[in-house]
Design goal:
The complex is a heterodimer of chains A (about 425) and B (about 850). Chain A is α/β, with parallel strands linked by helices and about 425 residues long. Chain A has helices at about 25-30, 40-45, 60-65, 80, 130-140, 175-180, 185-215, 220-245, 265-285, 310-315, 320-345, 400-410; strands at about 15, 50-55, 90-95, 95, 150, 255, 290-295, 345-350, 350, 355-360, 380, 385, 390, 400, 430. Chain B folds into five domains: about 5-115, no CATH class; about 120-190 and about 355-470, no CATH class; about 195-350, Jelly Rolls (Sandwich); about 550-565 and about 585-770, no CATH class; about 775-830. Chain B has 31 helices and 22 strands. The longest helix of chain B has 26 residues, at about 90-115. Classes of the chains: A alpha/beta (about 425), B alpha+beta (about 850).
Amino acid sequence: MNVINSGRLDRRTFLRAGAVSLSLPLLDAMLPAVVGAESKALARALQPQRMVLLHRPLGTYHPFLFPEKAGPDYEATRFLKLLEPHRGRFTVISGMGHVGYPNSHHTESAIFTGVAPEGIKRADDIHNSVSLDQFVARRIGAQTRVPHLVLNTANCASLSWNEKGVPTPFERNRAQVFRRLFLDGTPEEIAREVKRLETGQSILDGVRGQLKSLSRELGGADRDRLDLLANSIREAEGFLQQDQAWAAKPKPKVAATAKEFDQAEHWVAAQQQWFTLVQLALQTDSTRLVVLGLGEHNQNGQPDLAIGHHDASHHGKDPAKIEQLARYEEKEYRNFAGFLDQLVAANENGRPLLDRTQVLFVSNLGDASAHSSDNLPVIFAGGGFKHPGHLAFDRKKNTPMSNLFVRMLQHAGIETDRFGSSTGALSELKSA
Amino acid sequence: MTSPSLRPLLWCGILWAGLTAATSAAEFKPASFFASHCTECHGGDAKKGGLDLTALKPDFAARETFARWEKVFDRVARGEMPPKKSAQPPPAAREAFVKSLGGELHAISAAQQREAGRVVVRRMNRVEYEQTVHDLFGITVPLADLLPEDNAAAGFDNVSSALETSATHLVRYQQAADRALAAALPAWPLTNTVRRWTGRQFFDSRPKPNREGTAPFVRFEGDTIVLCARLYKHGSVTTPPTSAPGRYRIRASVRAVNTGGKTIPMLVGKISSDRFAHEKLQHVLDHFDVPADRTRVIEVEAALPAGEQVYLEGMDLPFFQDQKKQRNGEPVGDDFKGPGLAVDWIELEGPLDAGLGYARLFGDLPQVPSRYLADTLAGKPVRDDWKKWNVPGEFTKYPLSPVSTNAAADAERLLRAFLPRAFRRPVSEETTAYFVRFVQAQLAAGETFGDAMRTGCKAALCSPHFLLYVEKPGRLDDFAVAARLARLFWNSLPDDELTALAAKGELTKPATLRAQTERLLRDPKARRFTKGFTGQWLDLRKFHDMKPDALYVEYDDLLAWTMPLETTRFFDEVLTRDLPTSTFVHSDWTFLNARLAQHYGLPGVLGLELCRVNLPPGSRRGGILTHASVLKLTTNATYTSPVKRGAWVLERIIGRPPPPPPADVAAIEPDIRGATTLREQLDKHKNVPVCASCHVHIDPPGFALESYDVVGGWRDRYRVKQPPPKGGDYVELANYPGKKVWLARPVEPAGEMPDGQAFANIDDYKRLLLRDPDQLTRNLAQKLLTYATGADLQFADRAVVEQIVSDVRQHNHGFRALVHAVVQSPLFLSK
């Protein structure tokens, strides 16, 4: 590790995309005496827990992903071959899904919530519950400049939801995200921003007063709803206060520039840029929770692709279409492997960043040709688990993915024994 | 009058008159009816469908129990329960049961409505928010993208129960207000100006590289430029760039030359579109037919971003690259005799609403650059050279600021004018005082008058009085009705006329209400009603979400542009001419241009502008079920699914949505190699009772529509990618000479209705649907009421719906009559 100012803990540091050095967040360095080998759990509790939830649409071609054999020494399939350098750092899970979900694209909305099937039955009447990222965000609070980063490329449903079943707005402009995380404003801009946030709080205070007087005029059901709204004000004030606390602090410096994230020649490059952006955000401890929705694939700029991704996914058993689909997916798995490369290369006090980052890579469809929502392609990496290789569950009677969510939460130090439509915790995944 | 199975339905509608007239319903004692007719399957140990009627308590106050009872009511009233194979209750027993249960349910539901109304206080959704703010300030800057997506319920995303407000909303409303106010109060002077370029002026204005790119393909006749090739974006004739985001009017004087009397189709497009936007045709503003040797002035109005330019593209002209090759790089020159698109001039007018935002907030106060503000306020002489400053130039440093010599008094005066407009009703002294104090506090803290007012306005845009539709239980006051009307037809806030009528208390007089409904519908802003309602009723807003499989070689941008227009123009026609609701199921006319007519195999339609065309007998078209738009968006863009289309018809047209499929149902895996059809797989349902109970309704429309492919083309056989193992043919597409595809198995569009009536094809099926015009009107009444009031229908609303259906029946089921009936109904006029 190449810490520029190794004498003391300095938040400002210089990073380079790709080959990187950093000194953040240095919790380990601050607490070497407290955390010994005697208490791994305590050590984990004191370390930053990160979570990256990646969603891609359109399922997978099962035979090219799931290996025959369970356990660590599976024979790598076409897609898993691309991830071979990381064998042991991830688990591929077969026979897992959100049990009881309809066979439809709109289950995207529930991929990270695992809401009970009743909530996701109709595309035009969704009653969602909280997603993993927001559940964690609420519990760990704002330890970073951006409490959670919700990113989405075009044409994908909301993946992040709060307790009320309201979707979290997402960012789809990479360069803008970059600027927000890494570019300091001028002193005037910062002053203006601080003033904006202060005024924002007094506006919210006024909203509270107006709701009170409105409540007096309205009936019971309306009053209940206004009360709920009033309850959100405190939370909103919290957001503004956090932003204000961070506003004047200098942002971490990285060698990359916003321009590098402005344009991409094709979707493959665009995905790579998203992954690099996520890696930079994690590495600088700008955020610890990331949701990234991938999608909007087309064949432009890819000589080996002849038809659109969606078209290919409805292969209807046509071998030519299956091959096209496989090429799309290969590009995605290769990009994902590249992301893992980055998280392994990125060091945090001598350990790969990946060890402290739970990464879930999944699609809401199993087999898109049938629109089936069982047997989802689940790859779970990093986080400091003993990864068992291929975890094979019953393909006919799926294990709920919410059980994996419970396990992820527990591992992140959040005490809970249920989440979404869980029936337990996924005990097969052991902490390292 | 109709088939046996439809009779209970109609009869159950008629029943309402008696039901609601009865002040106290017959005493409700279901036990004996249940025991005689139901509990054999739904009681004790047998709980078919999870229903145990012996355990179902008449505890109507609990919402879930109420919903169960409602289901029981529907199944019995419709004659679906007991099932046909079982012994049926005597009609009198059924009627008595339905009447007493209906009475109970109605009474409970009506009591709840009396107390709290149907619509729990709701916030604007983000579409309404954006449009309202746009109209309030005369701006077009996008705002919806800053807000969380809205959930939908009952098929519409403005339904109160689904519109929760989170902390994120509260924070984002502030950001959206900042963005809106920045657009409403530009830093430099903005005026509505007309900028016209002759063809020559356009050419001379181009930077050298662009000019050189264009030059080989154009010639001049005086100041007129003649485009002799298909040029687009920067290469073609464009308007001057827009000065600021806003609404603009584009005009151009054009004619086709040397075309042998033929019209040239012309695209009017935006330069700024990226390739993703291009896929969704976001670059297209409109298409026109340019007549030969006769000048036509075309006109388009559009919201444009800053720096946007609008170009003209002669679509029939040879592509410029092709022409270059053909002529070996030789420029066309002045003596070129080939076809061309002559452009005398092109004109950009706008921003059409320049200054509106400032006027709404600052009235007629003058403004000066901030640099001169102190001197102006001190009464010192100030130079007015700034009126000649370049924009943005110095204005970025010294933005225009309003001049008020009496800030406190002006603030109060201006707020008293602004707040009632934004809040859509008179504002209480208490609320007004809060905003006045808020602005005065800003002034006291040293803010300029302009900044203080701007912050005050931001607070108003974040106020619950602005964001919520505040309605009190019972009959709505005139202001709330004005707000509902403006929301329904314009997605916006009331204009001055509506507000004035509300202030006089005249708006809710039936004749006035009717006249205002007519006025709102005739306004160009009523396009938002067509877009908003058809966007969700028919899913038209999802039209561009998926691109069809490459197997559909005939699908192109022009077809994609035309398809949804057929449906919106059709909708407008039915609405404007008050045609019967059954027109949506069948008509002997539709809207076509040459491209769509080709797709439908209908000769004789010329040009790209859609016009109403009478359909010849045997055209296989008519009614929205046969619109290519609907046929495309009810597929997954790769293959058709009778289930998906069938469920869509039940939900959207018949108004009897099927329940979602059971959780353990296996997905159907299509096989496009031609070996098996979905139909074969679906036929298995017939023998499984749990499947059959729903599929008996879902499958018929799905099967009938199998005659149309993924892009809405007619088909007798399924198209496949590769030669099928046997029985395939490689044939030319009927409407597309030269385009050949593989065809496999024949389509089987026949089927039978739930009542056993057989149909051979879509025409037959439509005839069977038309047997029950009341149900078509009823369905549309329900959809309109949901969209218009922002709440799903409740049990007590059924009586009102039946009243509307019977009123509209007197008007030949006219759709405009239905819209009026909805607006005049107690549901629209009460909370």
